[in-house]
Write the structure tokens for this entry.
Amino acid sequence: MSEPILEITGLNKSFGPVHVLHDVDFTVRAGEVTALVGDNGAGKSTLVKCIAGIHPIDGGEVRFNGQVAHIHGPRDAAELGIEVVYQDLALADNLDIVQNMFLGRERGGAWLLDEADMERAARETLASLSVRTVKSVRTPVSALSGGQRQTVAIAKAVLWDSKVVLLDEPTAALGVAQTRQVLDLVRRLAEQGLGVVLISHNMADVFEVADRIATLYLGRMVAEVPTRDVTHAQVVELITAGRSGELGLARPETATV
Amino acid sequence: MTSTPTAGARPDEVRRHNRTALLRRLHIEGPTTRAALATELGLNRSTIKALVDGLAETGVVEERVPRARSGAGRPSLLVLPQPLAAVVLAVDIRVEQVAMALVGLGGEMLGRNSWNLRGKAREPDEVITHIIESMRVLADELGVRTIAAGVSVPGVVRRSDGFVHEAPNLQWTGVPLGDRLGAALGIPIRVGNDAEIAALAEHLRGVARGSLDAVYVSADIGVGGGVISDGATLSGTAGYVGELGHMVVNPTGRHCYCGSRGCWETEVGEVALCRALDLPEGSPRGAVVAELRALSAAPAEAERKLAEFSEWLVLGLVNVVNAFSPELVVLGDLFTSLPVPLVKRVGDEVGRRSLVSRAIGGTRILASTMGADCKLIGAAELAFETVLGAV
């Protein structure tokens, strides 16, 4: 098997006295959808934010493409090719699709932006994902539906030639039909060879798109298993109890009756 | 396609024929000016006007003044097909997943969905139920009614009623897919072999556009082919042409599930590719694509790892070219991720070894540019074929 694109070993993170992530190991492989599941407060979003460079990590090693990487800020992550799509549709409402896709990384000289070039690139990217639901790339984002916004946010990752895309509950705020569209897009990203991490609470969604499932339980990574090897019930057990049969945390050996 | 040779035609038949021809042209080529329509269809300008007016009245097309002007005089009106005027359902059943889309007139994908097939989800009942449910969700979202459906299946399919005889990689046998979907959805359903459908897509909208004789070869888990001969799909008795993956190329090779030994599929299919790349069998598609992409950046390694694979590819393609004498062979699906120089080399080698290719001045071997949606697009076209006349 080829090397994982992103490999995290022994990651620790505390906020003051609260130890949020304990020795977390996590791998992302190119071309696969890895679902990251866990109960509220298990540390899913924190883990993603650590990878994205928003929270500095306290200890542990991050290897990207086999090389040790030091991520000190979102810019470092973006340079490596890690893109994050947040659950709250983090786009600037007052800007249009092109401006959002190029936000902070505009093309052109110091005095004049190359609008035509950016518009063309944005249109080509959306077309390559066969996203044709957006009428014009100059539509302000405020006029888009939730699903369309998520699509724009995900297309951004493709435009920047990202290697790893982290999606933090991309469908949490969407209706049924729009959820389908976004999940379809998620799968197609992986088929293009990107490493995709999907955080989701919806088990049906997870089983429909994920190749592997990683479960966090109270800040510990209790299992990282191929989807085909586990059942729905096992994953729910892992999320709620941290173990299921042979999977997950070891049973406390000192258990007394 | 829709024209039937008749001894004589009544005016209303002629009109219907012209109307269908015009719609087909708008559907495939997109917005066109009235003047261009008149030239290309060889019809009188007033005939075009009458047809377009009729279509505009029912909301199937819209007319607009073109933005860019060409030449002097009053600009000819641009005729735009309206996607929502006719929506069909396209379904692409693959071994690992099902993808579906609602496609509007003009080929625009209006909504889509896909899901993985694992274990029980692969059973025909589950797949059919899921398709029906998803279609309702997508159609409700758009507020449209679908008028036909096209389904692509990786197996042997009877054209007339969409009966799936055998889809070995899905482990389906004897599934009346067309009848069951038709009964549930109440619309005409057309089911076709996946490679045949992909060939149709390439012929109408892809790199084989304008080629009258083309062969499409694709590698998924299985290898299949579709043949366009003299501008139409070559189907053979009951429509079973195209099992190119089961040409025996290596009599001492691996056993194939079809009962034969050393089929082309066992040497150039996804499993063979995984073997060549040292990936475990059953790796997700994306992992194979990622590995191939990494290899594109390392030509020497690619050469070494894929040498045997490309030799088998050449061998099979020489047979295909010699048998069908196409001007173009389109490589689809997994083959599109092969390093570009490798495809070029394979093409050159086939040109050298194939007698027919030499005779017709070189058959071109190209990778498809449509990506993973090829079969969805083809399935939509299959559905449109039947209903364009009735829109």
